Amino acid sequence: MSDQAHAVPGGVRLAHHFDDLEQQHESAQLGMWAFMLTEIMFFGGLFLCYIVYRNLYPEAWQLASHQLNVLMGGVNTAVLICSSLTMALAIRTAQTGGGRIPQIGWLALTLLFGTAFLVIKTFEYKEKFEHGLIPGPSFIDPSGHAAAVFGAEVRHARIFFSLYFIMTGLHAFHMIVGIGMMFWTMRCSWKGYYTASNYDGLEMFGLYWHFVDIVWIFLFPLLYLLGAHATGGGGHH
Amino acid sequence: MSGHTQHHIVPLRHYIGVFVALIVLTAATYLTALIDMGPLNTPVAMAIAIVKALLVILIFMHVKYSNRLIQTMVIASALWLMIMFGFAGGDYLTRGWISG
Amino acid sequence: MSSHAATIRPGPERSDKPSYLTDGHTLKSWLLTVDHKRIAILYLAAITVFFSVGGLLALLIRAELFTPKGDLFDSDTYNKLFTLHGIVMIFFFLIPSIPATLGNFLIPIMIGAKDVAFPKINLLSWYVYMTGGSMAVLVIVLGGVDTGWTLYPPFSSTYSNTNVALTAMAAFVTGFSSILTGLNFMVTIHKMRAPGMTWFRLPLFIWAHYATSLVMLLGTPVIAITVLTMAIERVFHVGIFDPTAGGDPVLFQHMFWFYSHPAVYIMILPGMGVISEVIACFTRKRIFGYAFVAMSSLGIAIIGFIVWGHHMYVTGQSTYADIVFSILTYIVAVPSAIKTFNWTATMYKGSVSMDTPMVYAMCFMGLFLIGGLTGLFCANLGLDVHIHDTYFIVAHFHYVMVGSAMFAYLAGLHFWFPKITGRMYSEGPAKFGAIIIFIGFNLTFFPQFILGYLGMPRRYHFYPEEWQVLNVLSSAGAMTLGAGILLSMLNIGWAIVAGAKASANPWMAKGLEWENASSPPITANFDEAPIVTEEAYNYPAQLPSAAHH
Fold first, then answer.
1. Which of chain B's residues have a Cβ under 8 Å away from the Cβ of A52?
2. How many angstroms separate the CA atoms of C402 and C438, rounded?
3. pLDDT band at C545 (very low <50, low <70, confident <90, very high)
4. Axis crossing angle, helix A200-219 with helix B41-55, rounded to the nearest 10
5. What pLDDT shows up at residue C4?
6. Domain around B24
7. Partners of residue B57 in chain A, C-beta under 8 Å
């Protein structure tokens, strides 16, 4: 729009089809939010399944939820909140003109928390495997562990565990993708791409990371805490 | 173009404050789940989760300082979720109203 | 309408910069291009292949239905034929047809931008589309799929012995190409408009695509998660939708139609955009009630999201939900009617010239009227019980998807052909082809309304002998339709190779793509960045007739 538009600070790249950095930034921001809108609807379909079946089978839902490990789920919630804070601080560092070393420091911390989440999640999945709580044909085997725990509700409990694995699995998949992108972001940070006047890539990645955190904020109470009051909060047996 | 959306710097203490609030609310979710409030169990849990999500969206994701368009998109996505839940849920809710 | 004297600019002199077609000749310069115009051509090529496959499948279906007995195919093969016809035509032709080709090519030019907001994502969307398309081809090679395009469980997730999971993944993957296209369009229209191009100066084609992009963004993710969940149920034998496992197959239908009904508007809204452009040009008038037509696109996109339950009246859905969905379905007809009335009003006292695009547009209006009004029959709670899953439904949605969406696609292809290729097609064969297609189309699908009303169910290849006359008419119509399309494709193909050179503005039309860009446009679209000073369709009161070539 203006002639001086292409005179931009060093290190910042303005794509050929934009007039100025502001247009480029606003486009990136809007595009990222549009993408997250699709992500919300994507997870939304699963939440709809959850709502419908939970209201159809409230007892099975409570019994099945009680089988989840509240401690691990709770710790993971805290871990993700920590990672969101460090992510926000990484962006703030770029905003305030902090150099690449503090940027990468905060990103590395975020990476650490993200990895910790996945490690804990792996242990949780492993536990479910060992207890035969994997929702396949064997789940409803009358001689199996699940049948013993859930009795007549075993088929409905299997739907809970199907949704549990799909929802948390899809969430974990987003975490893995996020960690992959983290390495890319750290590389860009190392090259000094993110300055106070332009840190689009870092900002967009941050939005993604926070979104994944928000999904977990809803998953935790919906999946883990339904059975808590039934036994005074013993969590896993 | 409004400008300056990119350059709003949230004070450090706000970030720390949000972080503390999120941790406290997570503890609150757990503690309220220990109490059987009957039909209020889920609304309370969801209310806390929504407050947490709003804190992340408004402060960590800077939507509070973003332009109107971004804010509209956030509201629209919530609205569309409610449309999906509401109209599909409406079917299940009212199925039993007519017998036979 | 405008205060200052309106003029039509004949378009720029031939630029000394290379056109987008001559700017690089290697295969790599096409396959790795980020130019929205070249990506549109890539899409056009791929879509044409899928359209041909889907059309061939349709001809096989109609060939089988010449006789009441299953002469050509057994039941299993027939099931696969109509399933693949539906999947190929919907996911690989109708959904991307106008947006990914004409939309991709024209949106940046019409708003005065150099490219879409995210050119690399645009290219990525084509590769995603091709990946999904390859999976669909693989499904065909591996023996097909027999669930119907709707993929309803429990048949799909439990009982079918065909390639359901792969089909679901093909739809899943292709959905992302649609999301990426919609995302690009939305951001482009918001952020890339030229100076002076305010929202209410946008061509209605842009408004239509804006509404379409909203549907793509809000709806497509839901079908993605729906078919993914169904595929997981099938592959891992977990219980989600299977009623024997405690699941509810109607929930799948809710999720499926939450996308798949609005998807109908992904198919038709861009077509309505094309029709607005064509009618304005060939009546030399501003579209009557411009703002209403623009807003009706948004209205259709929004209300279109809350009518999906009308696909489910006979599934055991709650009667109260039926009533709400029925009322909303009647309401969604209002914005569609606004468009039709306003197009008609535009033609009133206009200087109408019946060039090929206008012929297609006229066909569109008649056929959309029939398609839309028969939709209201289906929205009726009582009548739908009678016509549900009969040929009445088949005829209704073909009038909307073929009679409207495909006719609009052909109208647009002919209208912007000189802009895209820099050449002109032969008017005679093009118009003749359009008339053959119109006759063939009506002969195919009008008898199906009667067949459906008489009670012939869809998706069967046997039928009682008393229905043979109508079926023979329909099948003969399909062959005519196929011949007409082949004729038009050959005419277009010949024009690409040997058509006369077209000027920048052969129709003497308003719009940046005609007045400010050469034919074919240069890679950066414009020599000088355009500045917009007038409303859309600002045709002069004194009417110069369209000067060809």
1. 88-89, 92
2. 10
3. low
4. 170
5. 55
6. 7-66
7. 210, 214
